Amino acid sequence: MTEYLSNLQHLTGANAGRAAFAAKHNEAANPFILGRDESYIGVLIDDLVTKGTEEPYRMFTSRAEYRISLRSDNADLRLTQKGALFGLVNDDARISALESREMLIESRIKELREFKLFVREWAYRGGNDVMGGDAIDRKGREGVKKSAEEILGMPHVTLDAVEKIIADVQNERKGRQKRLSTSTGDEKHDVDENAVFMQPSPVSIFDTVEATIKYQSYVDRQSKDMESWRRAQGVKLPADIVYDHETLPSLSKEEIEKLNRFRPNTFAEASAISGLTPQSLVFLYHHVSKINKSRDRLRSNISEKLSI
């Protein structure tokens, strides 16, 4: 909690400084605001301002609906440019280093996306269990190609392993091309001695490249969930809905108790209850959607029977 208080003091100081500078120059000061999707301090502030609290506030990661994106490895990517935009980061060397890191990350991900091998070759070089070799047993899968990006997205695959396989394949291809060029004397088979092959990712980008690819499917699903949630604010909660762990196993005991105590009529009202995390509300939304679909089907069936 001490860390969050320190960050809150820095954020308050930054806005106080901006306000003082704007007043001195007779300008309007746009406040420096960090949103829920940008930082944990943004989650903390938003929770306390919009919901309040009846007990000591605890900053759990579960309170952040975008927690998969709020990682330590990408903090500079999320916040440095915004800090520069608001005049809080004035170090040219720091900004230049950030831009260089961004380009390296984008370049490496592009390389991984463009490099492809057949599934059977990934499995042969990296092991069936790790590289998805079990897919070979499925009809027709042995002829499918997968990119290094897709392979890295698998649970047990590491960036180290993928980069090593790519480097090995590139070196083998160069060797074959060189032998072919020597034996045939054909210029079209000449080897480009200056060709750049896959090198291990620098420490400065390794974690971010691996995490970005590993979590991409979860980030996409997270975005879809939150978009559904934003559209659901006006949706009504069934008056007879049961709040318990049997029907809502993902909710905490505290969240179940508060839902039973307040019995919100809509999701907008539910989202205003202190202590209910956005992720729990998304789960509740999916649960209610299933209830409504089941009731609609039941009504449709009854209607069809009555019309016969």
What does this structure look like?
The protein is mostly helical and 308 residues long. It has three domains: 2-88, no CATH class; 111-214, no CATH class; 217-307, Orthogonal Bundle (DNA polymerase, domain 1). Helices cover 60% and strands 2% of the residues. It is built from 13 helices and two strands. The chain has helices at residues 2-24, 40-50, 75-85, 92-114, 119-126, 128-131, 148-152, 159-184, 203-214, 216-231, 253-262, 267-271, 278-307, and strands at 116-118, 145-147. A two-stranded antiparallel ribbon has the order 1-2.
Number of helices: 13
Q: Describe the global form.
A: flat
Range of helix content:
55-70%
The total tally of domains equals 3
Strand order of the largest sheet: 1-2
Classify the oligomer: single chain
Topology as a string of helices (H) and strands (E) = HHHHEHHEHHHHHHH
- The overall average pLDDT, rounded, is 83
Low-confidence stretches: none
Count every beta strand, where a strand is a DSSP E run of 2 or more residues. 2
